[in-house]
């Protein structure tokens, strides 16, 4: 068992990613100290947009969304999950679980003092982000779901997810740039592909990326299934504003926006977006547009009636009126 750290020189000169690195150290009971990297842009006193990446990307995914958000007067915080980006990387798949990621990310939120944030979750960042939103009652004033579901394991996975899980577990070489590119509609140039490869000097650095697909609950007795059920139950009674922004050309999670619009009362009446020329990795396909959409949603939370943090925070603190939004 070892914890690896990608050399800093791997991250020099990346295309469109000249952000200053920031770090916090959290403690895992078994692994010891783990350093987490995060992007932190904009006025430190401004309202926070917390952006959570998925698999096998890192905060680089959100690079084109940062400028529109900062221009709109927001502070953008985007951590690299443990095992990804510039954060530390345990080298054994057994070091990772859904629950360990929830603990690590919760420790990050506590260490950075984040609260009253607009939380944005993409892919696995959504599966983790919703656990935090429903578990930390001071964290979120609103939520943006981007191309992710929220499986409990009570329904079988679709064929695309099954194939993805088989591939990640069995492939001799886990080619991260190729994997990212396959989930995009746009062609990724050599420089962007190199940036997605930067965190991984060798296969031993990829344990977190390789195991993530296997951690998705796909059976009712999955170790995290009940926690997700409880979180979904909280969401079903939440008036917290909940926006979906999805790349339409996504075979894995492309239809999950309709599920959230039906599940969460706070999704009713909001201008949900489907981007027809974007795939699963929608923030890569349409990053600037994504940032502009989030900025508009953030303005609506702070500027509209009942837009204060005390009124909009915390899932489950008040019940909606039972209204549901239809699929956009």
Description of the structure:
This protein is of the alpha/beta class and about 325 residues long. It has one domain: Rossmann fold, CATH 3.40.50.1820. It is about 35% helix and about 20% strand. It is built from twelve helices and ten strands. The strands form two sheets. It has an eight-stranded mixed β-sheet, sandwiched between helices. Strands 1-6 form a two-stranded antiparallel ribbon.
CATH class category: Alpha Beta
Shape: globular
Low-confidence stretches: 304-328
Q: How widely separated are the two ends?
A: 47 Å
Total number of distinct structural domains:
1
Give the CATH H-level superfamily. Alpha/Beta hydrolase fold, catalytic domain
Total beta strands: 10
Under the CATH scheme, which architecture would be assigned?
A: 3-Layer(aba) Sandwich
Classify the helix fraction into a percent range. 25-40%
User: Mean pLDDT, as a whole number?
Assistant: 91
Overall radius of gyration: 18 Å
Strand order of the largest sheet: 2-3-5-4-7-8-9-10
Order of helices and strands: EEEEHEEHEHEHHHHHEHEHHH
Structural class: alpha/beta
Q: Mind summarizing the main beta sheet?
A: 8 strands, mixed
Helical segment tally? Answer: 12
């Amino acid at each position: 068992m070892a914890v690896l750290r990608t050399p800093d020189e791997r991250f020099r000169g990346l295309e469109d990613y000249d952000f200053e690195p920031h770090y916090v150290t959290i403690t895992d009971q078994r692994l010891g100290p783990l350093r987490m990297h995060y992007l932190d842009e904009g006025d430190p006193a401004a309202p926070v947009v917390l952006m959570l990446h998925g698999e096998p990307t890192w905060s680089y995914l959100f690079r084109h969304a940062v400028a529109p958000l900062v221009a709109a007067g927001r502070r953008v915080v985007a951590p690299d999950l443990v095992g990804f980006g510039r954060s530390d990387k345990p080298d054994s798949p057994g070091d990772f679980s859904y629950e360990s990621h929830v603990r690590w990310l919760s420790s990050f939120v506590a260490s950075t003092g984040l609260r009253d944030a607009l939380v944005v979750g993409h892919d696995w960042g959504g599966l983790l982000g919703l656990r935090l939103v429903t578990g930390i009652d001071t964290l979120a004033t609103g939520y943006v779901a981007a191309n992710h579901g929220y499986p409990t394991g009570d329904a079988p996975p679709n064929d695309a997810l099954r194939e993805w899980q088989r591939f990640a577990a069995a492939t001799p070489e886990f080619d991260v740039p190729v994997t990212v590119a396959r989930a995009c509609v746009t062609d990724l140039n050599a420089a962007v592909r190199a940036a997605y490869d930067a965190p991984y000097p060798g296969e031993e650095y990829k344990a977190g990326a390789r195991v993530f697909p296997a951690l998705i609950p796909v059976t009712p007795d999955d170790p995290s299934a009940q926690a997700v059920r409880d979180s979904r139950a909280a969401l079903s009674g939440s008036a917290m504003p909940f926006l979906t922004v999805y790349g339409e050309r996504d075979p894995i999670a492309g239809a999950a926006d309709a599920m959230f619009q039906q599940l969460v009362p706070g999704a009713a009446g909001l201008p949900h977006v489907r981007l027809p020329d974007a795939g699963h990795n929608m923030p890569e396909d349409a990053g600037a547009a994504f940032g502009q959409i989030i900025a508009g949603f953030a303005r609506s939370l702070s500027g509209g009636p009942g837009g204060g943090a005390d009124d909009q925070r915390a899932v489950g603190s008040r019940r909606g009126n039972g209204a549901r939004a239809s699929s956009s």
